[in-house]
Amino acid sequence: MSDIPPELLAEMTPAVRAFVESLLLQMAEMQARMQAEIDELKAQVRKLTPKNSSVPPSTQHPHARTPEKPKPKSKKKRGGQNGHKRTIRQLVPVEECTEVVPLLPTECRRCGEELKGFDAEPLRHQVWELPKIEPLITEYQRHRLTCECCGTMTCAELPPGVPTGQFGAKLLAFTALLMGHFRQTKRRAAMFLTDLLNMPCCPASTVNMQNRVAAALEQPYEDLKSRLENEPQVFMDETPTTQANGKAWLWTAVTSTFAVFAVFSSRAATAVPKLLGDSFKGVINCDRAKMYWRAERLQWCWAHSARDFQALVDHHDHQVKRLGFDLKRQVRIIFSNWHRHKSGEISWETFQAQIQPVRNRVNNLLLRGMCSGNKRLKGTCKELYEHRDWLWTFADIQGIEPTNNTAERALRPAVIYRKLSFGTQSEAGSRFIERMLTISETCRLQKRPIYQWLCDAVNASLNGQSAPKLFTVP
Prior knowledge:
The structure is a single chain. By secondary structure, this protein is an alpha/beta fold. The chain has a domain at 302-396. Helices cover 46% and strands 8% of the residues. The chain contains 15 helices and seven strands. It has a five-stranded mixed β-sheet. Helix 4 (186-195) crosses helix 5 (203-216) and helix 5 (203-216) packs across helix 14. The protein is extended and about 115 Å long. The chain starts with 5 loop residues before the first helix and ends in a 12-residue tail after the last helix. The model has no long low-confidence stretch (mean pLDDT 88).
């Protein structure tokens, strides 16, 4: 039945009517094809998971992550199993106890006769308790005296290391840890100080403390940042964030012993030399984002590639699925050989010899996908094949890791902080969080107690001294 209105149909000649109906039929067919493509794209998006794409793991609810092969339900009961090694809190020596209360029975529990003497080895029962938390308040009385000679009034100066504000070094460091390390909001940090530590505080005071700590961390932060350009290998990643309700990007550069975070307004390639320096000659471990391509040497993350190959396996097209299976098989061989080398089972020379045929097979598979004519394969395989040297840097240079997992692990606490805080509200807030994240991750990598180092750094700042170093020059 024609969709042409009757009043127009009556005025048309048979030739015009046939032409219009032909156009309407073509439009209907085009709309049907477009709707089919839209439905297919929606289905593909619904299938995207952290296992077959670069979708962050945090976007998927933990309860939605079902194993690929459901495991049979265990017949064991919940809790510790019979025969497992017992774990108990060890008793501290008697001399380290705050108080020792001897308990002696007064009469026999059977006949009631009076008991005398002491037990050489009494049963020891220790109870741990929090002390009463009271702030330590030191008042400095600055006397003002008038000179009898000239009449000038002089006021006593504060001793070195005494802050001009009301917050000492330990309180400043502790509050900074609450906000920058333990991811508490300024309001909740103020509530913690007031309710649990009996220190009157408000959100505005936490901002004041935040700025003081950020100033104390400026030099250690810049020292670590300047050290990046001499590193042989740097793991890099970035995540979107906000600053003053505007879009920004939180970058990280991680080495084996320290990490540096930075908040930039852009994700452009210019951010890389801002962080690493213009003379960086090492290897950057990263994903395939194009802002890294200006670097001289890259190592593309094989974990990202494995997820992309899994997406091919999950595709409905059998040609795509087949190539995905073939590539995934080679990835398993790559990681198997790499783990054997890392564990010391095989030498570097043996690893290189065993990885060479795998390298050739992967390159051939990528070439096959690029020349297949399948639009789903062509784009991915073309990019990987044309830059295949960036896939195999870890096989050419000893000590280079094949994945970028180090940067992703370092970035995860920052992502959680961003989700809780919705970014920063000012330039000063960004400087604080990038420096605190830097110190936090660096201390973790070095297995260094962060609170003690932060106390020393703030105390050095109050005394006009340099902060303690976070690395030792070899």
